[in-house]
Amino acid sequence: MHFTIHYDDLDTTPERLKAMAEELGLTPEELIHQAIDKHMGGYGLKTPPPGFEAKSLHELFVAHGVQKP
Which domain of life is it from (predicted)? Predict the structure, then answer.
């Protein structure tokens, strides 16, 4: 899934985002991804049932709702 973000021509957010990303050694896309992940926190994630033992990382991620089956 892809999202497009638009800013008004007078908005300084894109330039500030680019500058902050450069300071952190990231691309603007990576910084946006990190910001969304941080803001989302654990929203919508699940707790696996008691006794659940994952056989792989993918199975573990699916059980927690981080990845789709």
Answer: Bacteria
Domains: count for the chain: 1
Q: pLDDT per residue over 2-43, tens digit each?
A: 899 999 999 999 999 999 999 999 999 999 999 999 999 999
Residue 26 identity: L
Does residue 2 fall inside a structural domain? no
* Sign of the four-CA dihedral 22, 25, 26, 27: positive
Residue whose pair of structure tokens reads 């902050």 in the numeric block: 20
Exposure b/e, 10-26, CB count within 10 A at least 16 = b:
eeeeeeebeeebeeeee
By residue range, what is the domain housing residue 47? 12-64
The pLDDT of residue 31 is 97
